[in-house]
UniProtKB/TrEMBL annotation:
It comes from Streptomonospora alba. It comes from the Bacteria. Pfam families: adh_short. Belongs to the short-chain dehydrogenases/reductases (SDR) family. This is Short-chain dehydrogenase. InterPro entries: NAD(P)-bd_dom_sf, SDR_fam. One of its GO terms (molecular function) is oxidoreductase activity.
Length: 321
């Protein structure tokens, strides 16, 4: 496990390395953290693909970013992560248009909604947050590996600490549904995927880097499924008293951007805010819980994910250490 290093409390998006000539694909970039990432990367010269379910909202976000960042290069791609058919169509369009992808940020997600199912019948949070991103990354992997210094950033959460993988009931068909535990399961899966992907990339001799990051507690639309009390507590109106447990999306996105762009980032690492409880603050190198580092469970999750999505990676499973 990586050791935790002291954060650079002066690091902001303005200190990102130049991104000119690089293509970044960001899921869920029409609002929240994804939109902030798109704006920041475009401001540093990247060409950004806003991959989202509602392309009208994607175009609205692109227009707003162009107004802030004159000359920003942005395009919108329809991607509904609740449908593997949509994932395959979006990946095919990207593959047709681009010979390489320098940066993929697996950002989009849903948090603690009532029990729902994807088009394939997967539990919604596990299907959208993990399985769809697993499939999307795999379908684009050859384009990612064709880039000179590619990165894959998968967004997790402090909520992974409350999650566990029940391989006998990943989709909550036999248990009473617990939306918080289901969210934790999906965010734990995000981490395990990022770590196992790095292990396979490294074993294959690839230079691509797979890392994970989390935004702490950020004021975004993800809280829409929480109670009115929680939404109010996280709101900007209470900033004078909740500043230590909730931050703006502009601040919450910094660990993601650090993981995506800084030169000292290494594969298999995890970045989050440096403040108390990792709720807020500047980015730092952090670590996840012991469950996320269970290599046996990582390999099993990988196999199950390939079976459920029908997407296989051109990366052989490395020998167990």
């Amino acid at each position: 496990m990586p050791s935790v290093v002291a954060p650079d409390r002066n690091w902001t998006a303005d200190r990102m390395p130049d991104q000119s000539g690089r293509c970044a694909v960001i899921t869920g970039a029409n609002n929240g953290l994804g939109r902030e990432a798109a704006r920041a990367l475009a401001a540093r010269g990247a060409e950004v693909v806003i991959a989202c379910r509602d392309t009208a909202k994607g175009e609205e976000a692109a227009g707003a970013i162009r107004a802030e960042v004159p000359g920003a290069r942005l395009e919108t791609l329809e991607l509904d992560l609740a449908s593997l058919d949509s994932v395959r169509t979006a990946a095919r369009r990207l593959r047709d248009d681009r010979s390489r992808i320098d940066l993929l940020i697996n950002n989009a997600g849903v948090m603690t909604p009532p029990l729902g199912r994807t088009a394939e019948g997967f539990e919604q949070q596990f299907g959208v947050n993990h399985l769809a991103h697993f499939a999307f990354t795999g379908l684009l992997l050859d384009r990612i590996l064709a880039a000179g210094d590619p990165r894959i950033v998968t967004v997790s959460s402090v909520a992974h600490r409350r999650g566990g993988l029940d391989f006998d009931d990943l989709h909550w068909r036999t248990r009473r549904y617990d939306r918080v535990a289901a969210y934790g399961q999906s965010k734990l899966a995000n981490l395990m995927f990022a770590y196992e992907l790095q292990r396979r990339l490294q074993a294959a001799g690839e230079t691509a880097v797979s890392v994970a990051a989390h935004p702490g507690v950020s004021r975004t639309g993800l809280f829409r499924h929480h109670s009115p009390v929680v939404r109010a507590a996280m709101g900007s109106a209470l900033r004078p008293v909740n500043f230590w447990i909730a931050q703006t999306a502009e601040r919450g996105v910094l660990p993601l951007l650090y993981a995506a762009t800084e030169t000292d980032v290494r594969g298999g690492r995890y970045y989050g805010p440096a403040g108390f409880g990792e709720f807020t603050g500047p980015p730092k190198l952090t670590d996840s819980n012991g469950r996320s580092h269970d290599s046996t469970a990582q390999r099993r999750l990988w196999q199950v994910s390939e079976e459920l999505t029908g997407v296989t990676y051109p990366l052989a499973e490395p020998a167990s250490s």
